[in-house]
Amino acid sequence: MKGRRKSLDTFDGQLLNFFDKINTTGDCWIWQAAINKGGYGTCRFFQKKWLAHRLSWYLFFGDFDKSLSVCYWCNNPSCVRPQHLYLGTQIDNMTYMKQCGRQPNNVGELNPNAKIDIRAVNEIRGLRNAYRQVISETVRRLGLCECHVQRIANEQFWVSPSEKLEGGTDKAVEEIKKRLSL
Fold first, then answer.
1. Cα–Cα separations (whole angstroms), residue 102 to 52, 94, 106, 121, 176
2. What is the pLDDT of residues 6-47, one digit of tens each?
3. Which domains does the chain have, with CATH numbers?
């Protein structure tokens, strides 16, 4: 163990340790050690945490702009074969993912974080439509601007002097008097 530990202090030792964790028998070079939730290999290289495919790119091609993604031609997140990797922006990566059909269909109820279903969405949209209809009818009946009616309905506009507010004080009347300098 001491000899192995000492070898990890050298670049060659770190390199050997990295390659010991790769299965190179197939077309893809599969990372055989730690894998994160997304299926990407993870490792340490001189005490720095790396995604295995990013470290592979670094080892074979040298330093790169860390704002770029190291993307896969093979669509295999555990692959570290340098010929299967390319640098690209996140937009490049998402575009290629979409072209390959790997984009998850996580919309609506299929999204694991969804808190409502289509019935609730339809109910909300129905309320919105009913609200719009009431607003439109009110605008026509009173001859007001739609934005004013919406602000009144949302209590953002127009206060009645007779409205009593919390604490039993008539703050609305006080505000009107202050505005009129009474």
1. 21, 9, 12, 27, 61
2. 466 788 888 999 999 999 999 999 999 999 998 999 999 998
3. 2-104 (3.90.75), 118-180 (no CATH)
